[in-house]
């Protein structure tokens, strides 16, 4: 929680710099939109899919042999980097043909900038693949300090780009600063991973552990692909609304995610390690209930405070410079609606990881995909009547349905495992 707090402090400073320098502008819309597809590649090949499959297997191997655990990490890293490099290159070549579909509301000049920045940002999933492999190792061995410091360094790199590089290189400097942040994110985790005993060696051996990883990852890959498609859909939806809508949506979502990451995900990550060690035992359900209560109480109070003081918070952190009072009011209103989803999204992370601890990635993935479809349909239906507010409204309703289904599924899954 401490390192998440440091990360979000740096993130709020980053957003303050963005708002003051760019405001709710078309330039910042382009920068925010350039993350959507690289994040899709990262999610599909690595982020949550790797975490869901890697931690239980690595933990089990580490208890038997550190050497075998390191070999397993090298297998995952080797396949992941190669897959991302090839897919990223293909997409970079095809991107001009897809820009009209991905950001239909952008002008011709904005689309040219979008293509350039997206191509550059396609380097980030490769670096994040390495960093997140190290991060999954650290979660398995409970190295939470170094795991949590990485996002702090990431945000500091972005701030450096906004303050130092943008005056020299314009919007391109912001993307260069972002890549610097990704590199720092990786290096912070590399140091303890090396101390643990990690040494990189290309390893394309397909053994039983790798096959099990694929079986566990495949449902999660589909789930995460759908999650990123949802975010791309939200960007697409906002790009057709008045200029600055992508930026307003991104700022509101950033503030909503503070208590989710600071409290919800932090507790879920720590619980994941515990749940992986007691899966199938009576202790498992007690931990789930205890952590769920903590998450709901803490994030519920945080969401209430965030909603009550939304205008003050947005005005303090983003107001001034190029960010007008109208933009402050609209972002604050978006944030109030988003607050409903704070405890729901936080609980969703715990319930999903509880399934992963039981080595069940199929059912939570099916539930996730189904509720994303519901969210996309709702937002498309509501956008004509409530505009940009269709995004947080549909997001909250989708999460409510998802949490309910995950609770039912987890109860069924735990009874089967026992």
In the predicted model, the low-confidence regions spanning at least 5 consecutive residues are none
- Strand-residue fraction? under 5%
How far apart the termini lie comes to 32 Å
Helix vs. strand class:
mainly alpha
**Main β-sheet description:** none
Order of helices and strands: HHHHHHHHHHHHHHHHH
Tell me, rounded to a whole number, the average pLDDT: 85
User: Helix fraction?
Assistant: over 70%
Please indicate the count of domains. Answer: 2
What characteristics describe this protein?
418 residues; 2 domains; mainly alpha; globular
Secondary structure blueprint with pairings:
Elements: H1 2-22, H2 26-33, H3 36-45, H4 47-64, H5 66-102, H6 108-121, H7 124-140, H8 144-169, H9 171-196, H10 208-239, H11 245-277, H12 282-308, H13 310-318, H14 325-338, H15 342-357, H16 362-386, H17 390-417
Helix pairs in contact: 1-8, 1-11, 2-6, 2-11, 3-4, 3-5, 3-7, 3-10, 4-5, 4-7, 4-10, 5-6, 5-7, 5-10, 6-9, 7-9, 8-9, 10-16, 11-12, 11-14, 11-15, 12-15, 13-14, 14-17, 15-17, 16-17
Report what the structure shows:
The chain has 418 residues and is an all-alpha fold. The protein folds into two domains: 26-215, no CATH class; 244-418, no CATH class. Helices cover 86% and strands 0% of the residues. It has 17 helices and no strands. The protein has helices at 2-22, 26-33, 36-45, 47-64, 66-102, 108-121, 124-140, 144-169, 171-196, 208-239, 245-277, 282-308, 310-318, 325-338, 342-357, 362-386, 390-417. The two termini are 32 Å apart. The model has no long low-confidence stretch (mean pLDDT 85).
